[in-house]
Amino acid sequence: MRIAVVSTMRTSVPPQRSGSVELLVALLAENLVRRGHEVTVFAPGDSKVGTRVLSVLPAGYHHDETIWDWRLAEFMQLGLVYEHADEFDVIHSHVYCFALPFTRLVRTPTVHTFHICPTPDFVRFCRLYPEAHYVMISEFQRRMFDDVPVAGVIPNGIDTTAFPFSPVAGDYVAFIGDFRPEKGPLEAIDAARKAGIRIRLAGPATDYFHEAIEPELDGYDVEYVGELDHPNKTAFLGGAMALLFPVRALEACPLVVMEAMACGTPVLGLSTGPLPEIVEQGVSGIHVAEPSALAPALREVARLDRATVRRLVVERFDVRRMVDGYLRIFQRTLDKTCAAHRNESWE
Amino acid sequence: MRIAVVSTMRTSVPPQRSGSVELLVALLAENLVRRGHEVTVFAPGDSKVGTRVLSVLPAGYHHDETIWDWRLAEFMQLGLVYEHADEFDVIHSHVYCFALPFTRLVRTPTVHTFHICPTPDFVRFCRLYPEAHYVMISEFQRRMFDDVPVAGVIPNGIDTTAFPFSPVAGDYVAFIGDFRPEKGPLEAIDAARKAGIRIRLAGPATDYFHEAIEPELDGYDVEYVGELDHPNKTAFLGGAMALLFPVRALEACPLVVMEAMACGTPVLGLSTGPLPEIVEQGVSGIHVAEPSALAPALREVARLDRATVRRLVVERFDVRRMVDGYLRIFQRTLDKTCAAHRNESWE
Q1: How far, in Å, CA of A264 to CA of A243, rounded?
Q2: Are the beta carbons of B105 and A102 separated by less than 8 Å?
């Protein structure tokens, strides 16, 4: 199949530092190539993904001060995508719903994967294109799209080989992520303290970090380890008794949960988001209704069998599953589109 | 000609209150209809412009709290525009450069009128579409687009019949506009005080108004008259000895300058913007290099012949001139496009 995979114009594919959408696009594109498909990645010009890259910008707008309007950059890039539409059997957009207004102008069908939980206008605009092929990355996310018709739910996948199994944990629980209130770093610290377990925190030091987290650090029981590159991240996750993930933000399908699980590390978090779809209660982790229930569950989650945690994530969230899922959707979309065009020419 | 005129999705055409782009689009569309053209206006659904209106939203996003991302609303609307492209001979976009990424996907040519002074990314993206038909509204604006090829310069026009000539002025100079520092209300007050002339100010009361302007008011020598509707605006402008327009913001072709002149009111402002293109030095107004030169020129500008001021603006900036200009550009664009398609079919 000739597939266009459309990433954001924020940063390169794969990203030099953080960027979960760009990481996922890299993984997807590489695996599609490996399976023999002809893949073009639309992403900033400095992307290196082992296949053709097309771009209106030499680098992502995250690294370019002359780009004042990031949305405009995304739309200009989508112009480029659709000018090339004839070269593809399917276009796979990861850029919000921004591809929608282009879709009826070309024959090539578009599959849209949403990586966010939607705002009201987002859902409203999706309704204007009921024929579109929307992929949700969790049932939690799907529910937020209300009556919008959905082509399928394909959870994110990770390269489980890049997160080696760590059979024996260290003496700490891990928190990793952006330091923002809704990511729950204070709740994580509070839970670890109450449970009498050491906590180590990783992520880029934001203003909020300096304001609210730094005063809590003591260098051992509550320790900050900085922003980690991939080898250090896997060591950090693999060495943890559990990942504390008390995120209150609306995240559609968080990759870090799967990454921890791939290392054998069980996950403890809230049941309000997509966690119940990723974590099997009492087997690969525990989800609780309230932050106050985190501390009492912490010793219990740390006792879960790490080999089982690993096995479950490999079975359910390895990238192969995700690629299988997308190829099925692409094929179905293509079949539908060809049938529609045949009907058109009979008219 | 079958013409699509594409307004913003901010507010209706014409706007219920302020909105200079929406006002201009209304004027243009009405005049194109009057000349026998088939006009569709793309604008919020509550627009009333005497011809077909198409919209993805029932009202402008300025009046709709469920629209979180105004740019997305503009792009969704542009999707609708280009889905209808086959119905038009020409598409005339007033929405920044947002139509650009759609233009190569359809056969109908697009003319873009820019109403702003551009940011660096804006110019950069325009360069990606050198074949596009860009209309500038002043030479001042054109210079900011550097080497971008331009189809023509068409200054904004006003309906001079809606701004009746006022042969005798009152005892004040006028300031009208949003109260923001770069609009120069403090400079205007300062100049009037130094010249010993009363100043009256009109416009919506912003936070800046309450902070910086309100303390300067004394109810007579420096008087605030509120936000004015059209009849009160013409009376206010027509009764002024001069319009004080010390705007430091980059405005491409300000309508209020022409509106004052249509009432016979000469204009005093800075020479750094497009004013020298609109105001004939020493005839219909005066432009000076620095705010400090405003006060000494104020009595002089008030002595200019009001009938001449009126005559010049009717000759140069009546809407008929603007409509003539656009029809010439539309025809030229259409001829070019047809020639290109003929060459294509010969290949």
Answers
A1: 10
A2: yes
